[in-house]
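Below: protein 1.
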Amino acid sequence: MFGVRVRAAAVAVMLAAVATVAGVSTTQHRAGADPLLLDWTALLPGLTDAYDPGSSNVCVSGKVQCIDAVVREMQRRADPLVQSCSDQALFALTYLRVTQAYAWSARQPGYYADPSWTNHAVAVFAKYYLGAFDTWSANPNSSAVPRAWKIAFNAARDGRVSAAGNFFLGLNAHINHDLALAMAAAGLSGPDGASEKANYDKINFLLNSVTLPLVAELTQRLDQSMDDTSLPLSLDATAVGEVMWTWREQAWRNAELLADSTTLTKPLVTATIDANSITQATTYATTFAYTPVNTRAARDAWCPVHHEDPAPQPYPFGFPTD
């Protein structure tokens, strides 16, 4: 079942989900929220990738209010994409929802052993996607956009791949390319020198609770093929899940390699990460490309009618209000 396949894959997006919370109206959220409205663009100049719990910048010090600001930025980009039924909406809405769920979890006492580091890492990770999307939107040919993201964004712009293709291309670029770079930049250990891997892995449990409502919403609002058992190339859920978990684990290991690299070896590690993400992107762009038989006609007919439908299932934070 393709929906199950994507649910398994979405479990891995959540580190692509170290990032967001806005448009969520729940008691826990409001009870822990800071009434001060923080602007992401105002926070950016002082947002160093390295974690510093004593910083006056709420993103650098890992305050959950930074995540609120990031979510608003994600929402600002996702809303018009959903409204216009852009193929870019598939990944944008995915990232928004899983990071909204992250923000909810960050407000649950004891969920993370070191929530400040996790919040900081989420913000740094989100910056990679937001930066790539904004740079590509301004100039699709910019050399500042990683190749894996160019393949994903161009395929969506040109309407060349299925919803699953947009989903996997976004996951690949953000996990196989961005994740190791972001984690190495954020720092793999806290101020006391202890590894943050346990916090990194704890997100897996949250991702597992997001996958079912996520696929249900993507299917209801954007493209019914996201949960279509009749599609070809319907991979086994367990197999796909294992692939995604492997991506996330490999990203952490690559981050360790980056952290331990020298000025001579770091370019090689970075080039290897880049090459792998490009290979994966090329594979997904080909595998999920529309064909004369498997066309986008149903997708084009469905989304304009249903993109404003409410999410059919609650997330850990409840029903989204946007």
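Below: protein 2.
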Amino acid sequence: MLNYYDILEVHQEVSTEELKRSFRILIKKYHPDIHRHNKQWAERKTKTIIHAYKTLSDSITRERYDRLFNSHVQNNETQRTVKKDITTDEGESVKTHVRSVFIDLLDGQIHNAIEKYEHLLKNHSSNDFLIHLNHRDYFDCKFLLAEAYEKLGQCEIANEFYEFILEKNRQDTYRRHLLSEIKERIRNNYCRNLARRSTPEKALAYYGKALKLRLDRNDNAFIFKKMAECYLKLEEYETAVKHLNIALSLKPNLQGISKLKTKLNHLIPNFSI
């Protein structure tokens, strides 16, 4: 896991102003125009600096980065001792491998992490073996596993993790900003990544799950419109009209419904919305 503080040449308690000052100095120092003989290196360097600055200059992303990075540092020694079946004590062996999964996730080694996680899952399917982590690392590991599966295109598995975190932490005000992000990811996975490449029947199931997220009126209006489109494809015209009416009741100026209304006009006598 990259140390963004080292990259920006600051200490971990750095103020926002000090962070900005160091960032400006480093961007000038490593600007590709100055390093014309090694331009690709300079471009990679400045890209890393910019990403580090964006992460640390925002209080929310900095808080999450600090938590993950500190956990990574604390458990770095564990990674060095991980060997296959290094102990005859099953509990300690599982704990060690769970730590290895978590550290790989922190390091961005998602393929290694998923391979190890699924190996553990195969051999310990009846247990939530991540409980070997402390409370905060437990949920961070779940979140990072969700991200990893999402990046690998396995959005249904990702949403299982996201929904677990959301349900278990609804009353946690400390994580409220993270829960809002998780809810958005679940919605996007159901409504975009999954529903768009599914049959109308399957898409309706995904949209139904998205409605359970307690989203705002605009999001719900969009979902009901998409459900109306699915029912139209299934030739369930009356149900399509019903869902379109719900969508418009939530957002009267809803965009992108003209084609849908035109099709329904041709299919249903005396149709009006």
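The chain has 14 helices and no strands.
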